[in-house]
Structure formats: structure tokens, C-alpha cells
Amino acid sequence: MKNLPKWAAITALVLTAAVGGTTAASAGTASHQKADGKIVVGDDTCTWTNAATSANPPGTVTIDRTTINKPGGNLSCSGGLSATLNNSPVFTFDDAAGTATADVIDITGRQGFVSCRYKATNITWDRDGTTRNYVNRPFTAPRISGGSLCPGTVNADAGDASVLFH
């Protein structure tokens, strides 16, 4: 996410979604129905761990936003940024192609008094080898609310975020 102010770039957080893990889980390994996320935004990083999921991949998986957002989750960002996931994204998997697709990711990012909300649909993620770690492909998310200080769209480069199902 280049050339965006910090507060605007953070809104791509779970837009780039449910975001990246630190350990690898094999596609054939038993899962505990959890997901971890990470995104790097300029010099800042946003992370969350152990969000509850509705099932294990390759079945359809919904990530429960209440286990990402505080107080039930541990989503945190460095650099004075904050973010809130406004929906529980649904991921579908195509193991033969090594991809996953998130239906909708709707997020609000805040820094100071500036709040911007963005929504992306049909985000494609590529699986890392045989693991259940997925990295995003590039996408654009339009602003759905926020003032003139919020960019009209947020562009996410490939690999800006990842999500690990475990």
C-alpha cells in the first residue's frame, strides 16, 4: 500500500484482510478452527491471532469478527492506528488451484479524529505451497464512508497481507 497516509493505508488491513500468519500449517494437517493475521503498512504492523472460524479449510470458512476486534479479539496496530472489522468474512477454497476467495471485507480504519471505511469484494488469495497460509492478490477497495481526508479508494499490492488458518 504505497503513497497512502497511515490512517488511510490501515483501512486496507483486513481489506487485505484477515491477514498473515507466522507459522505454517500443512493443507493436510488437522486444524483447530483458528486464523491469524498480519499486515505491514509502511513502518507499522497490524496483527491478530486465534480468531475463531466456523470450519476448517477446504470447507467454506467464516472468520468471526468478534474474535478479531477488541474486546473479544486482539487486533492491534502500531503507530497510533486502530482498525475495526465490520463483517465476518467468508472464505471459499479451491485446493486444486491453490487459492481462496473472501466474499466481502468491510473495515474501518482510524487515526486521531479521522475515520475511513472501505469495502472490498471477491478478494483472491494464493496459498503458500501446501500450507494453509494465504497471501492476497492486488485489489482496490472503494471508500463507503468517511470525509474528504479519506482517499476514494485503497489499493493493496500483492502480498501486503496474509491469513493463516490453523
Features:
mainly beta; single chain; 47% strand; 12-stranded antiparallel beta sheet; 166 residues; 1 helix
Q: How would you sum up this structure, described in words?
A:
Strand 10 (139-146) and strand 11 (153-156) form a beta hairpin. The chain has 166 residues and is an all-beta fold. 2% of the residues lie in helices and 47% in strands. The chain is globular and about 45 Å long. It is built from one helix and twelve strands; from the N terminus they run H-E-E-E-E-E-E-E-E-E-E-E-E.
Compact overview of the structure:
This protein has 166 residues and is an all-beta fold. Helix content is 2%, strand content 47%.
Largest sheet: 12 strands, antiparallel
Strand content: over 45%
> Helical content, roughly?
under 10%
Structural class: mainly beta
Low-confidence stretches: 12-26
Span between termini: 27 Å
- Can you count the helices? 1
The average pLDDT value, as a whole number, equals 84
Tell me the Rg in angstroms: 15 Å
Q: Helices and strands, in N-to-C order?
A: HEEEEEEEEEEEE
Shape annotation? globular
Number of strands: 12
Helix/strand layout:
Elements (H helix, E strand, L loop, with lengths): L5 H4 L24 E8 L2 E9 L8 E2 L13 E2 L4 E4 L4 E5 L4 E13 L2 E14 L5 E4 L2 E8 L6 E4 L4 E5 L1
Antiparallel strand pairs: 1-2, 1-12, 2-4, 3-6, 5-7, 6-7, 7-8, 8-9, 8-10, 9-12, 10-11
